[in-house]
């Protein structure tokens, strides 16, 4: 069976939601603590030189990373998990999927570990990336529709991001104040009965 390297509540939770929506089995390899030196990091480094989660090792031994790439891979076999090809909504699906990983995720790459990237004033890098991320989420909120999911009644793989990012900085109180539509989508996704196990295992009920 394919193995998903991850840690509860981390980016691997996004992939867990995607796999569960797609009804595709995986075995979780818990590498909690992988962002510090130690056996968990060594285990992850053996399959991904970036030492990031999610990292997926497919049944044939090939390695797959990147939440957006995993989403597109799953979409091949599960076309119902995105708006139909050729529609304006499908174009937005592609756009926002890549937008999230190209813009929001790097703020975490640099902001979560500022001392990795600068020798002086790492706290400035942390706070500037935090502020930038907030501005990104405000824009995303301005693009959101009325729900219940991002593409209305249709649950898509894009929805997998919302319950997880709500648990990260700028955290729940900020999201509730500034991005109520994103909060509502996250809540609706969390409430899908099929996701109950994954939501609990990743402690996504903030
Ligand atoms: N672009 C990647 C980003 C993955 C990523 O940065 N994951 C975080 C955890 S949420 C991580 O592994 N951080 C540790 C690090 O960057 O050293 C994706 O979309 O999967």
CATH class of the largest domain: Mainly Alpha
* Secondary-structure-derived class: alpha+beta
Which compounds are bound in this model? glutathione
- Chain-averaged pLDDT: 97
What is the number of independent domains? 2
Order of helices and strands: EHEHEEHHHHHHHH
Number of strands: 4
**Share of residues in strands:** 5-15%
**What share of the residues lie within helices?**
40-55%
Largest sheet, in brief, is: 4 strands, mixed
Show unreliable segments: none
The number of helical segments is 10
Q: Which fold name corresponds to the CATH topology of the largest domain? A: Glutathione S-transferase Yfyf (Class Pi), Chain A, domain 2
User: CATH architecture of the largest domain, please?
Assistant: Up-down Bundle
Shape: globular
Distance between the termini: 31 Å
Question: Cα-atom Rg, whole angstroms?
Answer: 17 Å
Q: How do the strands of the widest beta sheet line up side by side?
A: 2-1-3-4
Describe the protein:
The protein has helices at about 10-20, 40-45, 65-75, 90-110, 115, 120-145, 160-165, 170-180, 180-190, 195-200; strands at about 5, 25-30, 55, 65. It is α+β, with helices and mostly antiparallel strands. The protein has two domains: about 5-80, 3-Layer(aba) Sandwich (Glutaredoxin); about 85-190, Up-down Bundle (Glutathione S-transferase Yfyf (Class Pi), Chain A, domain 2). The protein has a four-stranded mixed beta sheet, covered by helices on one side. The longest helix is centred in the middle third of the chain and has 24 residues, at about 90-110. The mean pLDDT is about 95. Glutathione (GSH) binds next to α3 and α4.
């Amino acid at each position: 069976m394919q193995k998903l390297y991850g840690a509860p509540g981390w980016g691997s939770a996004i992939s867990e939601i995607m796999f569960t929506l797609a009804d595709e089995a995986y075995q979780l390899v818990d590498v909690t603590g992988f962002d510090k030196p130690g056996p968990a990091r060594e285990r992850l480094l053996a399959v991904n030189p970036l030492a990031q989660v999610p990292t997926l090792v497919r049944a044939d031994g090939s390695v797959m990373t990147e939440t957006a790439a995993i989403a597109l891979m799953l979409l091949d076999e599960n076309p119902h998990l995105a708006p139909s090809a050729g529609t304006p909504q499908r174009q937005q699906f592609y756009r926002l999927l890549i937008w999230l990983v190209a813009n929001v995720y790097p703020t975490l790459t640099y902001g979560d570990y500022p001392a990795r990237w600068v020798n002086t004033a790492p706290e400035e890098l942390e706070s500037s990336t935090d502020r930038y991320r907030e501005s990104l989420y405000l824009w995303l909120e301005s693009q959101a529709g009325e729900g219940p999911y991002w593409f209305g009644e249709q649950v898509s793989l894009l929805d997998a991001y919302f319950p997880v990012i709500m648990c990260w900085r700028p955290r729940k109180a900020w999201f509730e104040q500034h991005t109520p539509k994103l909060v509502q989508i996250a809540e609706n996704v969390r409430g899908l009965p099929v996701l109950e196990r994954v939501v609990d295992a990743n402690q996504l009920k903030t």
